[in-house]
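Exercise 3.2. Students should predict the tertiary structure of the chain below and write it as structure tokens, then compare their answer with the key that follows.

Predict this chain's 3D structure.
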Amino acid sequence: MSEYVTVSAKIPRELREKLAKLGIRPSEVIRRALRKEVEERTRRIIYKKIEKASLIISKVGKDAWTRAIRESRDRR
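Answer key:
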């Protein structure tokens, strides 16, 4: 089972009243928004790492990569 922590946010009373009238549970909205933000930022970090790696890989050249792959296969 997952361990949970409590996160709180202050919102205007008027907004809280509108949420209640519409039957919206703030906790669900907050969880969804936080998950989405974490996924998006993780994606951006990975994309930046891929960009850096592709610059390095492009400098090595196709022949060197082919040779390295063949050598690694021969070691098995």
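Discussion points: The chain has one domain: 13-75. The helical segments are 13-22, 26-60, 62-75.
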